[in-house]
Amino acid sequence: MQPKDLLQLTEQFGSPIYVYDAEKIKSQYNRLTKAFSKVDNLRINYAMKALSNVAILQLLREMGSGLDTVSIQEVLLGLHAGYAPEKIFYTPNGVSLEEIEEVNAMGVQINIDNLSILEQFGAKHPNVPVCIRINPHVMAGGNTNISVGHIDSKFGISIHQLPHLVRIVENTKMNIVGIHMHTGSDILDIEVFLYAAEILFDAAKNFKNLEFLDFGSGFKVPYKKDDIETDIEELGKKLSKRFNAFCKEYGKELTLIFEPGKFLVSEAGSFLVKVNVIKQTTSTVFAGVDSGFNHLIRPMLYGSQHQIDNISNPKGKERFYSVVGYICETDTFANNRRIPEIKEGDILSFRNAGAYCYSMASNYNSRYRPAEVLWMNGQGYLIRAHETFEDLLKNQIPLPIEATV
After folding, report:
1. Consecutive 10-residue runs of the chain (405 residues): their mean pLDDT?
2. Sign of the dihedral through C-alpha 281, 286, 290, 295
3. Is 328 a residue of the active site?
């Protein structure tokens, strides 16, 4: 997408607004499948927690993607978007047995990540095909909040509990069809990923009826110019060779599954805001915009850096600005960042706004959530309307008159 296209969309739909480039999503999907083209049975399950708009789900469904879901609500959205139940993978954490049973009744593949639920479910439903999530105790990820495979993580069944796990499966006669792991997000070193994969291969040898191995995801995408990213092509070459060799050892052709979220949609997204005010203090120049961490929380939550472009004045002289939002507490998108000269009324574009931006948005300060637009075939399609005051009131129930007297 060109800056002129983004400016035109803000004129058409207003600001703030999220815009997603369909072609970038498609190219990332194709890049991943090409990297693992040497694997006969490859399945991509989009991790929809990154961006769960139904139009995005439909786009990926048409490309052949399945879904990775983490809640019953995501499962329902996936079914609503036209996915067959067998194309949906359900990996919850800390949910009740009742929710897992409800999802199972929908025909979705379930993935269990703790011994207690595994034993309870296996005792009641021994014939249901189940996947098991293993915690390989491998530290990976760009932030402690998104590193989920380490020894203190709440996710997965510890690899050190494998004997206990096997005993539960033998006692319940459960039907284990898959083994799963996910070490974390923003993985830089593919050798760490390959090391964790070896742990998964070793664990898989304990189960004789597997149909697939799920390696999760967590591939790092670039957030700024010359930023480091996961070398998908090298990972594809090395892991494909090792996976194919394991299938021969195992005596059966298995399916290799990945569940990318950020990798597919992050770079496709732009978040567009309007500059409300330029405020000079004794030490800082603030550019205050018509948004806040209620719409883009990642810089405040993770310390993440999103490149900010002044698309109204892209060739202007660069100056230092702190870009801040309108939320009534510290609300900083960028500190002391070099950006082409900003004036009130300019449109700023935040890159990498496709993943964990709208999906983590809120109505904090009673602000509305923005619209979402899909840019496809040179045209902008409104895929979620801007919220209104009626949306804030929709589920609120006022006190009856007699209770206020």
Report:
1. 94 97 98 97 98 98 98 98 98 94 97 95 96 83 43 82 95 96 73 90 95 92 86 95 97 96 97 98 96 96 93 96 96 96 98 96 97 97 98 94 72
2. negative
3. yes
Strand segments, DSSP code E, in 52-121 are 66-69, 88-90, 109-112
3-state secondary structure of 168: helix
For 316, the domain range is 269-381
Q: What is the Cα–Cα distance from 24 to 28, expressed in whole angstroms?
A: 6
The tokens describing 9, both together, are 């969309």
Query: Residue 367 annotated as binding?
Result: no
Q: Is 302 annotated as a binding residue?
A: yes
364 is in an annotated binding site: no
119 among the known binding-site residues?
A: no
**Catalytic residue of the set 131, 247, 328, 357:** 328
Q: Looking at the 3D structure of the chain, how many domains does it have?
A: 2
| 104 CB-contact burial (10 Å; exposed 0-12 / middle 13-18 / buried 19+) | middle
Burial label for 26, CB within 10 Å (0-12, 13-18, 19+), is: middle
> Beta strand pairing status for 88-90 and 109-112?
parallel
CATH of the domain at 71: 3.20.20.10
